[in-house]
Amino acid sequence: MLEPPFPELDDLLKMMGEAGRHLAEIEASEGAAGNISVCMRWPVEPRTRFPVASQIELPQPVPELTGSTFLVSGSGRRLRELIDTPTASIACIVVNEGGQTGTLYSAYHRRFEQVTSEFNSHLAVHYDQICSSDTNFHAVIHAQPVHLTFLSHIPRYEDEAYLNRHLLRWQPETIINLPEGIGFIPFRLPGSPELMAANVEALRSHRIVIWAKHGVMARSDVSVKRAADRVEYAETAAKYEFLNLSTGEIGTGLSEAEIQTICQTFNVEQTIF
Ligand SMILES: [Zn+2]
């Protein structure tokens, strides 16, 4: 939830660009992999930056979001290039009355035909989170960080308790930033209704979820950069875990007692350790 004064359209486009560039820097977005969207519920005038308007069917009806504005990365656009000319790679969608359709605003120089094919998963999460928390802002990122995704190919990390007890043991910050741990969804076809449903469910109780053998989705109701931070915290934990596996598991990580002391000191409520 954000308090006024709300960020301007240009500020949000810049933050999406910076988040996209950073995700590429941490090897979480090769080629055109990954996508970003934000939802704002305060009034926005899109036509100053996105003068071309067309009508689209939304992937699902979102009647409670009538009048809300989305900024969504375009299909096939590279996250690392969003920052160069954000309006060439990002579209703006305002939800029409009734929530079945939207007005898609874009720039004359846009370099994509449609918004990301993962917009169905993004919209479902925005809708679920906004309806349950009544937040006026929500950001969602899909990225493909190498180490987290690699670990999702190793059967024992499919167990969420095992996954979290192993990944959240390497730095004090990890449990503080991800107190609910990292969610895990078994492999589902990209863009499928099955992935969409499992993703919404997992993100109710986690800030970030692994899509097995594919990547992650993270959310934030504060900023798009906060969502990107969550990808980075989880990916850094996976890097430590990978490092430990590749050195014959010589590291022990923080002990359960050490993590519990950290949680007591910083008032972190968690059920992992
Ligand atoms: Zn993907």
Computed over alpha carbons, the radius of gyration is 19 Å
Main sheet properties: 9 strands, mixed
- The secondary-structure class comes to alpha+beta
Distance between the termini: 29 Å
Task: Write structural notes for this entry.
With 273 residues, the chain is of the alpha+beta class. The protein is built from nine helices and nine strands. Strands 2-5-4-3-1-6-9-8-7 form a nine-stranded mixed sheet, with helices on both faces. A hairpin with a 3-residue loop joins strand 8 and strand 9. Helix 3 runs parallel beside helix 7. It is globular and about 60 Å long. The protein starts with 8 loop residues before the first helix and ends in an 8-residue tail after the last helix. Zinc ion binds next to loops.
Keywords:
9 strands, single chain, 18% strand, alpha+beta, 9-stranded mixed beta sheet, binds zinc ion, 273 residues
